[in-house]
Amino acid sequence: MKKLTATLLAGAAALTFAATAQAEPDGEAIYNQACMACHMTGAAGAPIKGDEAAWAPRLEKGMDTLYAHSIDGFQAMPPKGGHMNLSDEEVKAAVDFMLEPVL
Ligand code: HEC
């Protein structure tokens, strides 16, 4: 019985953790998974993370536009980086992580 209780408690802890992760998407993990392939290499003309010159004219459009372009796509940028399973909040967290060094 003790063992069962411990298993149940561990399960509950894992669920709590998952719920927390949902509320606060991990921008770095999402970037690594969904954005890095293009935004680290500059593939297809993607602005590279940390490249101030590449981001300056884009930042002038405002964060709302950059969020919208990340979610809906923009020219060679596929909607959600091609990862349609991501929520809007997860994509925004990845944008925040990507732009953090140039803000
Ligand atoms: C298949 C390659 C590819 C992937 C994957 C990708 N991007 Fe992009 N992204 C691009 C390209 C190319 C551009 C430049 C588009 C242009 O200006 O023509 C771009 C531009 C952007 C911009 C600037 C948009 C603007 O209005 O200037 C943002 C923000 C962005 N991407 C965020 C993301 C995020 C967040 C992810 C991951 C969820 C991601 N991208 C994944 C290729 C990619």
Automatic annotation (TrEMBL):
Segments forming domain Cytochrome c: 22-102
Superkingdom per UniProt: Bacteria
The keyword Cytoplasm belongs to this UniProt entry's keyword annotation: no
Gene Ontology molecular functions: electron transfer activity; heme binding; iron ion binding
InterPro entries, sorted: Cyt_c-like_dom, Cyt_c-like_dom_sf, Cyt_CIE
Signal peptide annotation: 1-23
Keywords, ordered alphabetically: Electron transport, Heme, Iron, Metal-binding, Signal, Transport
Protein name in UniProt: Cytochrome c5 family protein
Species in which this protein is naturally found: Billgrantia montanilacus
Species lineage: Bacteria, Pseudomonadati, Pseudomonadota, Gammaproteobacteria, Oceanospirillales
